Amino acid sequence: MERTGGGGAESELLRIGGRVGPAELAVVCGDANAAVARVDGGDFSLVAVTREGTPLCLLACSVGDHRWLLARDSPVIRVGPRKFSFAFPGFFYGLSLPDGSFDRDVDRFELVLERFCTYQNHAGRRDAEFSPRRRDTDFWASAYAKIDLLSSSALPPRGYSSPPAAALSIQSAHRASSATKLVAQALKAIANPSHHIHISGDISGGATFVFPTLRVVSDVAHVLQAAAGDLSGGAMTPLRRCSPLPGGGGAACWHFNLAGLLLILRTVSAVAVGAAAAGVAPECSTSSGAGGGRE
User: Fold this and answer.
1) What class is the 2-154 domain?
2) Which InterPro entries does UniProt cross-reference here (predicted)?
3) Do the Cβ atoms of 260 and 268 come closer than 8 Å?
């Protein structure tokens, strides 16, 4: 399945669910006492968004209506036959694929993670924290400290702040999901990517694909927060570095420049004003060329 828009295309690479059962997504945060919140349940999907005529690309996962970015600076750890964690500043996602999902589909997903993410497979560990017999909530809570340690050791220090309160982490996760959707729509729809997107790193060798880091989600999450006039927190910790990345310190990556972020801010603000005037809840959608939209 492929959806196009304004020179970009979104392709579904993998879907798990349907008759085999729903996937479950949780947000886990905390220090000694981990807090776990179920975010969504439903079909799991993996999508690629590309921009015609450019190497710009992104990979994202969804469970139900919640979407998150796959990035080199977001370590992914397999902690069970059907369980994966995805580290973000201040929290991580806990993904539980349905027990009835086919091994070949899980293997396909793992191949993508191995190629495009900072990935570790600890599914064979016998640690009590990774016991598959635990209920999902107990599993993620007990595994938090071990996953946090493994994730932290997977990358050089990035200057992440200490974990915020659980409520703010959960709010951050929801805002990051909205930002990820908006990033995908903007990549497809921005009229002139060269004026609004900056590529860091060396692409002189003709890179086939250039992916974003978590910075792109952090930046757009702060744009959404500014558009909403919300100064209470809940956006992701600002990330300003686009390199070094695992697999080569000079690996290229992309993010929106100031002009791109201002375009997104103007578009989101205009949508919010129009929705308020019409007396309806605003969606992150637009037809002005900057992208957005619930998919």
Assistant:
1) mainly beta
2) Spartin-like (IPR045036)
3) no
